Amino acid sequence: MDTSKIKILIADDEPDIIDFLQYNLKKEGFQVFIARDGVEALQIAEAEQPHLICLDIMMPGMDGVEVCRRLREKPDFKQTLIVFLTARDEDFTQVAALDVGGDDYITKPIRLRVFISRLYALLRRLEKQSPFTISELDNTIKIADLIIDKEKISVHKNGSEIALAKKEFELLCLLIARPGKVYTRTEIFNKIWGNDVIVGDRTIDVHIRKLREKLGEQYIGTIKGIGYRFESNAGN
Questions:
Q1: What is the per-residue pLDDT across 221-230, written as a single tens digit (0 to 9) for each?
Q2: Which of 31, 127, 190, 207 would bridge 195 by S-S if both were Cys, CB 3.0 to 4.6 A apart?
């Protein structure tokens, strides 16, 4: 991996953390940009188009969750890797981070070797383009009352657009590509998050729950103890 070509943005309001991460990431050869609040993070992200963004959740001006939400609304940041840094380990904080399109979260205090390892694992997904890519399927899928446009990264149900986070969209595309096929949790992790990425045990459950809330309960079935499938008779 040629780290000299990779841009990383670190957004945190703690000077010691900024200095620590900037120094060590530069030692790894990365191009590093820093922001000290949420508004500055948005500005630098739009100007520099980083490959990976590390966002502290609690920042002045605009918190990291809101920064991520706004970035994911922009076409240029649909596939950007976004990692949250947080001193809070509550489930609702982790769920909020994943809900708005975060790829991973790292709790403070930051352990340098773990932090660097997690970033490399995420970046390898860019290098490999991930085991599952949206472009492997036709540009548009129509099934039941859903229309999924992978080029525009959009979903419509009965003519109304449904806003999905990036990972929710990728998960839906995976399941809907083969209606009725049961995907194990391991398959889903490997295809959507990559088998090098460490995520919490509840990650899949959170995304399935959000898809059901947005699309309707009838589309995704649970096979107890195994995994999930897109119901082939959904909408009938």
A1: 998 888 899 9
A2: 190
